[in-house]
């Protein structure tokens, strides 16, 4: 909010400004409690292959089980966590929990478990020089192989400065996969792709609807092919969209048409419905 700074470095008063600052402090204090008292949850949304609809991975999505306000979506607290720096400990918890859960699924269900888990990371986390070491520790402590973890970044995360470029290089050296999320909405994504090699690009969900301008959806899948990286279509809500994106060449998709984000227990139930444990064990 540098624009709001007047002479002497003090912020020019705008109505609502104090309320926002107070709100941020309140959320930050409550979020510290949430971390300490185990109120954070991960939900997992299946990523499936097209056209089969087979589970290929899951994306871990944070929620806050607030004692009075119920389940809070990330859009309502992740920005506060980013602004206060609390995203660093929160993100560390996300990473460790996602690795632990995915390793547990693999121990229980073998090849029927989601092959990969994707974790969203914020710019603040990548700018922290300790991040790659924390990822290595999360993998080691959980026993999850590095290639089963995908770190999702956005364009703004990737150009974040600090240790960002170095950290991304270290993650690749560990064998962790990198996905460029919300692709197609940014300003300089082509330059970025040249400078920061990724393993996957996720077409932003604003490009899923049909009928609509599919110039970008088409260009992105062709770009992925030329680069030799995976293309995932996000936010697929209808069978028509799924068929359209498959016809364009998308081999993976994610969206309410296939499955909503769900608790870990519901992922396990879905795996068991398709591959009962006896069959998994016998295999
Ligand atoms: P994202 O990484 O792009 O995640 C996809 C979002 O789209 C999720 O929202 C998901 O529930 C939603 N979605 C999935 N399929 C559909 C669909 O078919 N239609 C529609 N309308 N929406 C769909 P969610 O869980 O509310 O997360 C929102 C954003 O919050 C995420 O966007 C991500 O940027 C951020 N986020 C979530 N978890 C974390 C986290 O652990 N750390 C950080 N730093 N950010 C997170
Ligand atoms: Mg994501
Ligand atoms: Mg996305
Ligand atoms: Mg997003």
TrEMBL record:
Residues 24-275 form the EAL domain. It comes from Spirilliplanes yamanashiensis. This is Uncharacterized protein.
């Amino acid at each position: 909010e540098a624009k709001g700074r007047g002479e002497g470095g003090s912020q020019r008063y705008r109505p609502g400004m104090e309320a926002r600052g107070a709100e941020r402090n309140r959320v930050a204090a409550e979020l510290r409690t949430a971390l300490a008292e185990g109120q954070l949850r991960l939900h997992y949304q299946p990523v499936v292959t097209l056209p089969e609809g087979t589970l290929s991975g899951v994306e871990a999505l944070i929620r806050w089980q607030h004692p009075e306000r119920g389940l809070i979506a990330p859009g309502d607290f992740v920005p506060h966590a980013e602004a206060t720096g609390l995203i660093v400990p929160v993100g560390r918890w996300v990473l460790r929990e996602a690795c632990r859960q995915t390793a547990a699924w693999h121990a229980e269900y073998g090849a029927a478990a989601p092959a990969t888990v994707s974790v969203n990371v914020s710019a603040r986390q990548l700018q922290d020089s300790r991040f790659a070491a924390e990822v290595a520790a999360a993998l080691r402590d959980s026993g999850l192989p590095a290639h089963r973890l995908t770190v999702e970044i956005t364009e703004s995360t990737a150009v974040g400065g600090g240790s960002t470029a170095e950290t991304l290089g270290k993650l690749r050296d560990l064998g962790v996969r990198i996905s460029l999320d919300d692709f197609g909405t940014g300003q300089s994504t082509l330059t970025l792709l040249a400078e920061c090699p990724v393993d996957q690009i996720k077409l932003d969900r604003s490009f899923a609807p049909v009928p609509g301008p599919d110039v970008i959806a088409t260009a992105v899948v062709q770009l992925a092919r030329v680069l030799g990286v995976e293309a995932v279509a996000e936010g697929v809500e209808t069978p028509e969209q799924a068929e359209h994106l498959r016809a364009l060449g998308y081999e993976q998709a994610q969206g309410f048409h296939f499955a909503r984000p769900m608790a870990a227990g519901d992922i396990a139930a879905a795996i068991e419905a398709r591959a009962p444990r006896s069959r998994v064990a016998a295999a």
